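name: query_chain
kind: protein
chains: 1
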Amino acid sequence: MKTSHILAAAALTLLAATGAQAETYQGVNTAVSTKSRDEVNAEAVRAAAAPNQNVTRGSRGPETVAVSKDRAIVEAEAVRTSYAPDQNVTSGSRVNSKVVSTMTHPMDARVQAQQGTGATAK
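structure:
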């Protein structure tokens, strides 16, 4: 009985010793800023006085978009992609399958027909 009391006391002492460890206090962090107090205050006043600051996005009219390509080029790319013969087929569509495009693209066939060369299918 004494051995079990000694073991229980040792376990509780060990538990208390590990649980009693606390973090050290490093003090209050100092603020690091490149602006002076007056500059920050002036910026806050400008932001508070800005018009329409609480208006939800999109309620001020259409937003501007940076255009990187000509509209006709983007439209032609979209049409070409939509006419691709295997656009909805992936290699995972069937077990152990590979996507091999054997069909000529309809837009290429039209261009070849207009040029008089004729399209050939494999």
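note: The chain has a mean pLDDT of 76.
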